[in-house]
Amino acid sequence: MQTACQAVQHQRGRRQYNKLRNLLKDARHDCILFANEFQQCCYLPRERGESMEKWQTRSIYNAAVWYYHHCQDRMPIVMVTEDEEAIQQYGSETEGVFVITFK
């Protein structure tokens, strides 16, 4: 999704961002880039005083929940993050949307 892609660009650098973009462009992977910031039900404005990372995490989680419901709750959604606080906050908030880390 768009916000996750931008987070990679800002937090991981241009090299990782380009790797991600190339994966998305490769037809063998059958991937799309969902522009969640332009979808009315997924967009969340940044709150006053909220860090960019917290806003991105909140936006990504909100879009994951929206997509889960869009799929009529039939397909579990997995959000991967390195933010332990996000795992604690969102990990058990919505049944069918899992927030995990690979650490």
Automatic annotation (TrEMBL):
UniProtKB keywords: Cytoplasm, Exonuclease, Exosome, Hydrolase, Nuclease, RNA-binding
Q: Which organism is it from?
A: Homo sapiens (Human)
Q: Which gene encodes it?
A: DIS3L
Q: Which family does it belong to?
A: Belongs to the RNR ribonuclease family.
Subcellular localization: Cytoplasm
Query: Which residue windows are coiled coil?
Result: none
| GO molecular function terms noted in the UniProt entry | 3'-5'-RNA exonuclease activity; enzyme binding; RNA binding
- What is this protein's record name? DIS3 like exosome 3'-5' exoribonuclease
Biological process annotations from GO: gene expression; RNA catabolic process
Question: The organism sits in which domain of life?
Answer: Eukaryota
GO cellular component terms, alphabetically, are: centrosome; ciliary basal body; cytosol; exosome (RNase complex); plasma membrane
Q: Which cofactor does it need?
A: Mg(2+)
